[in-house]
C-alpha cells in the first residue's frame, strides 16, 4: 500500500510540474507580432556561420538580406572555400548590393567547437558594437533584430532565441518538432521565468565591447558548447540571459530517425557535461516516468490500467497541444503520436548521455569531455 501511495503521489507531482512548466512558458511567450524599428536604431553586425547547402538555404539567405533594420551588415563565415554554400552566398551578395555584406573564408582553431572556430573571423571583422551570431538555418523575420533588441534590459548580458521547428516533412520531422517546441523551448522559457535563463546558440545578441572586455569570442571556448560557455560567462558577471518573446523558426524539411537520434544524443551529452546538475533531472521530464509511476499505483489500487494510461496521456499532452496552438507553432493530427515517440526516446537518450564522449557535428568528430577530464589528461 505504501508503494502504491508513493507511486501515485510521485506521478501526480511530475504531472503537476509538467503543467507548471507549460503555464510558465505560456506566460513568457507571445504569439508572433511585428515590431517596428525604433528611431535612432543602432547599427548591428550579423555573423552567420555557414556550412553546406540545406533544403532551405536559399530562403534563409534571402531573409537575411531583407531585414527591416535601418543599419546592419552581414558577415558570412565559411571554413573552406570549396564548400558549395559559397556559391549561393556570393550570388546573394550580388543580388542585394544595398546591404553591406561580406563572405569570410578560413578556420581559426581556437577550440574543439567547429562552429565557434568559424565565427572568430567574423567577430574580429564586425564593425558595430551590437553583434548577432545567427545560425544559417534560422528563418529570420523582417523584424528579427527588433525582437532581439526588445529583450535587452539594463541587467542583460545576452539575448537569445530557442529554435521553433516548422515545416516538417514526414513523421520523424514531426518528432523533431515535438522535441524542439513543446519540450525544449517550453522548459527553456520556464527556466527563464524562474530566473534560470540559459543561452541557446541559434541566435545570440551580444554587446561587443562587453564581451571583448571579458575575453572576447575566444572566451566561449571555455566549454565545448559556446552557448554553455556564454551562460556561465554572463552569470559570472552578475548579468542575465534573456529570451525573445517570440522565438524564431527553423524550417526542418525531411528528417530521419538517425538524424534525430544523432542530434538529440549530441545535445544531451553536451548538457550532461556542461550542466550536470540540471541535466540529471531531465529523466523526469516527458510522460514516460509519470506514466510508469501511475501504472504502478493503479495496479496496486486495482484501478484499470488502460484508463489510467489514457488519463495520464491526456493530462500530459493536451496542455502541450494547447501551448502550440496558442503560440502559432506547428500542430497536426500526428503531433500527439510524435510526442509519445519523443517521450519513449527521452529516457534512452538520457541514459546514452552518461556514456561515451564521441559525437559528430556536421561531419566533424567531437569528443565531449569536462574541463577536469582534459586537465587530468594533460597532467598524465
From TrEMBL:
<keyword id="KW-0472">Membrane</keyword>
<keyword id="KW-0812">Transmembrane</keyword>
<protein>
    <submittedName>
        <fullName>Ceramide glucosyltransferase</fullName>
    </submittedName>
</protein>
<feature type="transmembrane region" description="Helical">
    <location>
        <begin position="6"/>
        <end position="26"/>
    </location>
</feature>
<keyword id="KW-1133">Transmembrane helix</keyword>
<feature type="transmembrane region" description="Helical">
    <location>
        <begin position="273"/>
        <end position="297"/>
    </location>
</feature>
<dbReference type="Pfam" id="PF13506">
    <property type="entry name" value="Glyco_transf_21"/>
</dbReference>
<dbReference type="GO" id="GO:0016020">
    <property type="term" value="C:membrane"/>
</dbReference>
<comment type="pathway">
    <text>Sphingolipid metabolism.</text>
</comment>
<keyword id="KW-0808">Transferase</keyword>
<dbReference type="GO" id="GO:0006679">
    <property type="term" value="P:glucosylceramide biosynthetic process"/>
</dbReference>
<comment type="pathway">
    <text>Lipid metabolism; sphingolipid metabolism.</text>
</comment>
<dbReference type="InterPro" id="IPR029044">
    <property type="entry name" value="Nucleotide-diphossugar_trans"/>
</dbReference>
<dbReference type="GO" id="GO:0008120">
    <property type="term" value="F:ceramide glucosyltransferase activity"/>
</dbReference>
<keyword id="KW-0328">Glycosyltransferase</keyword>
<feature type="transmembrane region" description="Helical">
    <location>
        <begin position="303"/>
        <end position="324"/>
    </location>
</feature>
<dbReference type="InterPro" id="IPR025993">
    <property type="entry name" value="Ceramide_glucosylTrfase"/>
</dbReference>
